[in-house]
Queue: 2 jobs
Job 1
Amino acid sequence: MSPVSRGFRGRSRVPAEEEDRVPPGQHVTKDFPVLSAGPTPHTPLPEWTFSITQGGDTLKSWTWRELQALPAETVTVDIHCVTRWSKLGTQWRGVPVDTLLDQVAADAPYVLAFCDGGYTTNLPTEDVTGGRAWVAFGYDGEPLPPEHGGPARLLVPHLYFWKSAKWVRGLELRDHDAPGFWETYGYHMYGDPWKQQRYAGD
Amino acid sequence: METTAVRRRLTWQAAAVTSIARETASVVTIELEPPDWPGHLAGQHLDVRLTAEDGYTAERSYSIASAPNEQLAITVERLENGEVSPYLTEELRAGDQLELRGPIGGYFVWEPTDDSPLMLIAGGSGVVPLRSMLRHRLRAGSDVPARLLYSSRTLPDVIYRGELDQYGDGVRVICTLTRSQPPGWTGYSGRVNTAMLAETVWPASQHPLAFVCGPTTFVEAVAENLIGLGYPSERIKTERFGGT
Amino acid sequence: MDAVDGNAIGGLLIDVFGTEMTAANSTCGTCGTGRPVAELVVYRRAPGTVVRCRTCGSVLMVFVKVHGVTCVDLDGLASLSQLVARGDS
């Protein structure tokens, strides 16, 4: 281990009253860091769609208006980024992924979220259903800002936040779990923050 | 003394902090004595690594403020919400050790063997590597004509102000203050823009070499303007520090 | 958070390639544009470091550090060439 730097503490410790809400290895932040692997995309809303696909076919697609017409929920959740910050009590508005998948006859054990700019991330279907995930277009009472994934991002708060894909445009149904962008480079296929599943093999 | 060829790996070494001098309310210059420093070129940077007691580490890069063959120094600006800069600017003391590795960089470097008119353009703490170039030029006895266009928020934010005031004919220092100017201010006001650049930079016909350093948006706007003023892109060297 | 440029990953590139690489010439595998590595667009606040072509935005290099081992993907580059060192750093 490298020599200790006298007096260096890193980010602030977790307040005692928040300890059970913060997974191991995380610190709590009051701001909302912007992390990106590329420039912020800007798809005009009249061109925007969200699709469920399978084997190259589009099973169902919603325009922005159609998505807005679906029943939406406001939820308050804690989010945990693999780069070690956690933000507690974040408020989002979006359509549950259950609502979208219910409108599609097909079924599959895995999904691959795909996004403007080419980003992808993989998840088991059961982790985006059962009330555990949303296509979110509102944050903190306002439209989701582009730098945080607006117009819409996937929101899957029980997993590390790289799974909550920004600028999401759809879900591809898959029989096998295929690694998305970060998973290909060694990030964990599942990503449970409570088990510190940051990297493959953790 | 010849600088040694760098084919070896960069290794971390613990340097003694010999002094910390305050430049502005949020900026300090830290002098360092690493046990095994191979020397550096003007414009290069070094990486700093801090280690907490639980083994957590944080690394950042800082431009070298000193000229080659001077006492090694870095200049650090305290960033709001920063993790490393608040420690370096407020906690670190002379007598502490600081882990570093370097020097790093082969693109954003200036050597006096290049006799092109030198055009240095800095936004905020982007002035640090350019100051190393000016100090090197002076110590090397170079008569390459040089200009520095330096953008800061207010007069108290101007880093190395006393030193920059001392430059004579060979180096023209032009300051612009973007947020507020003191009474009687005779320098420029407002952000660097096309008109200001047209008035202050070496004409492209003189084949100048430009170094632009500072926040990303600043660097990109300036570089684009220099191209518009006829500078070939290969004569514009850029170093972006990232915005907030 | 703004992107930076290849200067910011000088140390990482020395770790990976064993030598200074910011002045090396890169050629984008998608649009063919050549430029020094120092002038590429670098996103480093993500879970890894992503380096993109400044002209077309394609991903040229990705670096991810997993348990102390750096995973390097250079697929997006058509070429990367470095002049023989002149004997200075």
Job 2
Amino acid sequence: MAVAAPALERTTTAAPSKDLLVEMFTVMTRARKLDERCWLLHRQGKIAFHISGMGHEAAQVAVAFAMRRGHDLLHPYYRDLSMVIALGMTPRDILLGVFGRQGDPSSGGRQMPEHYSYRPGNVFSVSSPVTTQVPQAAGMALAEKLRGGDRVAVTCLGEGSTSQGDFHEALCWAGVHKLPLVVVVENNEYAISVPMHMQMAVSRVSDRAAAYGVRGVTVDGLDVAATYAAAKEAVDLARSGGGTTLLEARVARLTPHSSDDDDSTYRKPEDKAALKTQDPVPPFRAKLIAEGVLTEAQAKEIEDRALAEVDEAQRFAESAPFPPAEWGAGPVFCE
Amino acid sequence: MTEKTLIEGIREALDEEMARDASIFITGEDVGPRGGVFRATIGLFAKYGPSRIIDSPLAESSIVAIGIGAAMNGMRPVCEIQFADFIHPAYNQIVNEAARMYYRTGGACPVPMVIRTPYGGGIGGGLYHSQSIEATFAHVPGLKVAVPSNPYDAKGLLKSAIRDDNPVLFLEPKKGYRLIKGEIPEGDYTVPLGAAKVTREGADITVYAYGIMHFYCQQAADEVAKDGVGVELVDLRTLNPLDTNTVLESFKKTGKALIVYEDNRFLGYGAEIAALLADEAFHYMDAPIRRLTGPDVPAVPYSHALQDWFMPNPQKIAEAMRKLAAY
């Protein structure tokens, strides 16, 4: 008994420029090549763990590019590879973390892969217990409001994470204080193995927004243009005192939950086969070519360059030193 | 100097620090116009307004999480959890988030915040308005835990906690809010975190305590002094990081240790003190290390008779002191 697919909204028509579209495609491509490489490295036994963002790329670049990058604040979750790349993390940064090497900007090899933190890009640290970032992002937004700043806090989570109390508590604050906050739910309909209809009895996460007095919007997260328009409106509203938007992007999880999961134990073969039609990257590529934003040769060049960057980053990360043992010991306190 | 209560020390620290630093704000349940259920923040709403004294939704996890997020975005929040008994929904945010953030970001992301909460029994609060939570939280690396035992320390320690760049859990002995009085000098001063204090010198036994138990130990020490028992009293003041030097030096002088706390006995704070003494001062030991504690039942029962049974008090402490001195 699947939850009925909702009608999707397109709330505004804010459209990215051609240059921005090319940059978005570049980020998506880089993220996809990195993601594929991490799966490969895991299957080769070179890394202990990978958690993937494949299928979420379109929604993530759309949201990231709707932000003032480097100025606004992002409190992401573990699938947000495209988003953190859009905010400045490089393939080297990502693979240093994946290999647990010295120089990993997220944690210096202390956290598992994909637990991003990147202060230069205002990317705040990913935790493993889900949803803790959402009320923290509300706190960031509150701080911004208290001192009259103009930065918007954006936070991301999966639809399963909306079952946590922290989601509810955060949105209470967001509504009461009209916080400059955008809560992005990347709804891929699975929380590891548990389908959306076992998580909630509403067909859209965004329906819950009314209960908190915030805006609720659902978009097709496989569609860059639609998601960008909705995210831009949400970010602009937040910045101009219009309060919080609960933005639900309907996406597809093209992979198992993580490198330790086997989704054939809970997804039917035909459903898995159908996922191929939900990959957001090929249609975006085709659209850019059809609209004359890119030529086939230019698209290929971007892909080749991304692959070369990933190759180089892997060589760099694999030959980087491990952190020294004393790095395990601390510092625990800020002195 | 005039005599003031412990809670006045708390309030003075909050007031003076907020006047000094515009990045400080207070949030928690009923902290606004009501001034807190114990009146710790009374007058501050009128003085600093609704953008710096913020009544929170009734949701403890978010009170801490809002503080963490604000702290990571340049503020110095002081979060109030109305009773320590209600802190448990915020455990994840305190332990997994606030305490680990600095370490997990390789030092890129300090979380300068204070979580104030009244703790402890003796006020007829029953199971859920009497709990002692210090052992649970002092166990956590990355979280400082402080407990004042008198008005002077309440003000000075809280100022240090607010100025510290780490998350600090500030446990306030609620039974002592108005019971414990003392002098508070005018103007700014601090009491450092991580420094215990010998508050009474004696040659026969060392007694370690904090919060209201330290207050009771002072009374008990006066009592047993009449029988010629010399008690050296150490007020721990900060439970994490522990001032091991002061703890050890006093024990080396007396060779006998009693640790008094109202938290449950099993795996309580006294076990760590006992282990430290056994590890580092074994050759000075003249008697078994003793603990006088609350019993291992879920919490302080409500009925006056049962509460009295649960709580260590000056009489029980004096008896334990005499026994140890006689060993």
